[in-house]
């Protein structure tokens, strides 16, 4: 098996794992009342952009081979790095869902009985789910042997993250005030001790 084919298989298996991890939390979240949501239209657009970069573009390439002019050969070292990043991404993705519990939401919402979560991965970073998406996009860049499919995730996550993060933190400051400001001083956004 070539490294390029192996990388594609690893990416596809990770994608399936992502859906398996998210499904039960999405079901539970539907049963928890939303007290406040921010920018519903903007949220849908940003989530659509992320979906295009992480799912749609790679799937189009996988199914059709388009754009073949941007294909290249991977080496096994890239696949190993990509697989390791993907495993870390999926672990962090699962932990962030588990630590949030019923407070998790795909869009910017304050849930019923919402609290600041400071346990688990939230002890050192405020936004581990974004960190997991950045890791996923990096893994995709190492695993897919097509420049558009490989880099689409990074572009999409950059748009989602840098457009959304300030809104999200303002919403949390409005909801929790000085308690959230103190949490912001104690933690970094997505990289422990750095950013």
Automatic annotation (TrEMBL):
Molecular-function GO term, any one: protein C-terminal S-isoprenylcysteine carboxyl O-methyltransferase activity
Annotated GO biological processes are: methylation
What keywords does the record list, in alphabetical order? Membrane, Methyltransferase, Transferase, Transmembrane, Transmembrane helix
For the keyword Zinc, the answer is no
Q: What PANTHER family does its record include?
A: PROTEIN-S ISOPRENYLCYSTEINE O-METHYLTRANSFERASE, PROTEIN-S-ISOPRENYLCYSTEINE O-METHYLTRANSFERASE
This chain belongs to the protein called Methyltransferase
Membrane topology note? Multi-pass membrane protein
């Amino acid at each position: 098996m070539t490294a390029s084919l192996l990388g594609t298989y690893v990416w596809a298996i990770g994608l399936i794992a992502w859906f398996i991890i998210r499904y039960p939390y999405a079901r539970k979240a539907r049963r928890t009342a939303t007290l406040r949501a921010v920018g519903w239209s903007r949220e849908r657009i940003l989530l659509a952009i992320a979906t295009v970069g992480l799912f749609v573009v790679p799937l189009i390439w996988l199914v059709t081979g388009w754009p073949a002019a941007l294909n290249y050969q991977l080496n096994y070292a890239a696949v190993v790095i990509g697989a390791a990043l993907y495993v870390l991404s999926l672990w962090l993705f699962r932990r962030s869902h588990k630590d949030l519990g019923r407070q998790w939401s795909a869009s910017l919402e304050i849930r019923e009985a919402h609290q600041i979560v400071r346990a688990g991965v939230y002890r050192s970073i405020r936004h581990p789910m974004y960190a997991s998406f950045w890791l996923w996009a990096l893994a995709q860049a190492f695993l897919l042997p097509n420049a558009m499919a490989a880099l689409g995730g990074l572009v999409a996550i950059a748009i989602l993250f840098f457009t959304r993060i300030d809104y999200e933190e303002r919403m949390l400051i409005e909801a929790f005030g000085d308690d959230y400001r103190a949490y912001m001083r104690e933690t970094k956004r997505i990289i422990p001790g750095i950013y």
